[in-house]
Amino acid sequence: MKLVNIKLDEPPSCSSASPIVFIGRNRRGEWVAQEQNGLYGGLFVNRSQAVKYALFENGHHPETIVELSREFELDMNRSSSAAPSQATAARRVA
Predict the structure, then answer these.
(1) Are 32 and 24 in contact (CB under 8 A)?
(2) Which one of 16-20, 63-67, 71-75 scores highest in mean pLDDT?
(3) Which residues contact 44 (CB under 8 A, 6 or more apart)?
(4) CA 51 to CA 94: how far, in whole Å?
(5) Which of 10, 55, 62, 79 has the highest CB neighbour count under 10 A?
(6) Is residue 38 within 8 Å of residue 54, measured between CB atoms?
(7) pLDDT at 88
(8) Are 7 and 82 in contact (CB under 8 A)?
């Protein structure tokens, strides 16, 4: 699997003060939630818990939660300029 990293600088109709949180499944089927700069994230047993965590961490801004349609792994060692790849395959949760 080839990994490509991109950064979403300004998502449509969102305040720049609200961090973007990506959610999706990893290769083991666990739900992952991670802030785009890797500042926080976690593994969850289901989608609803991942969304609940993302909402708590981003100040209850559902418009800044992006669900990825491809698998991605929790990476707490990521540099602050990296983000999950293939944002074109992402869809808004809100």
Answers:
(1) yes
(2) 63-67
(3) 30, 31, 32, 33, 50, 53
(4) 10
(5) 55
(6) no
(7) 38
(8) yes
- Strands of the sheet containing 90-92, edge to edge, are 41-44, 31-35, 21-25, 65-68, 90-92
**Whether pLDDT at 81 is above 60:** no
Percent of the chain topping pLDDT 90: 56
Report the amino acid identity of residue 17.
Answer: A
E strands in 2-92: 21-25, 31-35, 41-44, 65-68, 90-92
Alpha carbons 81 and 39: distance in angstroms, whole number: 11
Alpha-carbon gap, residue 16 to 19, rounded angstroms: 7
pLDDT tens readout for residues 34-48: 999 999 999 999 999
